[in-house]
Design goal:
single chain, 334 residues, D-Maltodextrin-Binding Protein, domain 2, eight-stranded mixed β-sheet, two-stranded parallel ribbon, 13 helices, 10 strands
């Protein structure tokens, strides 16, 4: 009986020992929860999954990323606060969502500000003068560390009436927008801006809550907006950028080795996504041509858009102040 009792104690000790070892193993793993507005199948979702693969492999399993897509946890407008406060470790947010704290981030939404794709790529690349100013300001004002910028594409317009070709076609129309500067652009074009989150677009267009839509080509495909809008105008007047962010206190709590793994992976997936988005944008447009009427502007028509929106840059400078001059000079100097 005594021997049996001793054996039971020994077994219990072994079990507790095993539990302790298991607990240590579990506690050694750092989980990074990520909130995303779009589905995993979208380019931004695939971008996070590529990042996940790299950091989990490079860290030998010390880092584990859990992705919560399709706004399961937070809406887009809630992401900066959620990440900055530490309510969640990381996430993706539309860059314009930081405009309340750092108004200068909306420089990327200035109409026809970037001369061409090469200029845009140079201005938003990791370590560029413009990025250094904006990334540092976002961290200082929100507590969110920018890991990388996520290219979403360029701005286009949608409608169900007369195809939009020149600014006069927008006169008096209610236009869905997703940022203040974009609202100013709509006003300069003669329309009435209606601020609306991306997830509400389909229903709003279906019900006629606005006359004109504004978004990126990839969203037309992923959100199936071609089912509720028949015309798409390729204005390409501004860039649409998201940012992958992480709570700075959480980042600083990681080992130097894991911090490096994260930042190295961020640099890799940032380039991958931008290459994919800009090369894939044309392919998506070609695909959508069979589903809706795609309007390609002539050089003469585009010149009318450029002329009509010149005042937006001056308005941006006056509204934002000295920092606007800094980021504009940083971008234009490239």
């Amino acid at each position: 009986m005594k021997t049996r009792f001793v054996n039971m104690i020994g077994a219990a000790a072994l079990a507790m020992s095993g539990l302790a070892i298991s607990t240590v193993a579990v506690s050694a793993k750092t989980v990074i929860r990520v909130t995303l507005q779009l589905p995993e199948t979208h380019s931004l979702g695939q971008n996070w999954l590529a990042f996940k693969k790299i950091i989990e492999e490079k860290s030998g399993g010390e880092l584990e990323l859990q992705l919560f897509p399709s706004a399961q946890l937070y809406k887009d407008k809630q992401v900066p606060e959620a990440v900055g406060s530490g309510a969640i470790e990381a996430g993706s947010a539309f860059l314009g969502r930081f405009a309340g704290s750092v108004p200068a981030v909306e420089v990327v939404n200035l109409p026809f500000f970037f001369r061409d794709e090469a200029h845009l790529r140079a201005a938003v690349s990791n370590g560029s003068p413009m990025r250094e100013i904006l990334d540092a300001a976002v961290l200082k004002e929100t507590g969110a560390k920018v890991l990388w910028w996520q290219a979403f594409g360029r701005n286009i317009y949608l409608d169900n009436g007369k195809p939009i070709r020149v600014p006069a076609d927008l006169k008096g129309k209610k236009v869905r927008t997703y940022g203040k500067i974009l609202g100013w652009t709509v006003e300069a074009l003669g329309g009435a801006p209606v601020l609306m989150s991306g997830s509400k677009q389909f229903l709003a267009y279906q019900q006629g809550a606005v006359d004109v839509g504004m978004t990126g080509v990839s969203a037309v495909k992923s959100r199936k907006l071609y089912e509720v809008m028949k015309n798409m105008t390729l204005s390409y007047d501004s860039a649409i950028e998201f940012v992958a962010i992480m709570n700075n206190d959480f980042f600083n709590s990681l080992s130097p080795e894991n911090q490096k793994i994260i930042m190295d992976a961020a640099a890799v997936v940032e380039k991958q996504l931008r290459d994919q988005v800009y090369s894939g944008e044309a392919a998506i447009v070609d695909e959508l041509r069979s589903k809706m009427n795609v309007v390609d502007l002539t050089p003469e028509e585009r010149a009318q858009w450029v002329e009509a929106t010149r005042s937006v840059i001056d308005r941006f400078r006056k509204s934002v102040g000295p920092m606007a001059d800094k980021v504009i000079a940083a971008a234009q100097g490239l």
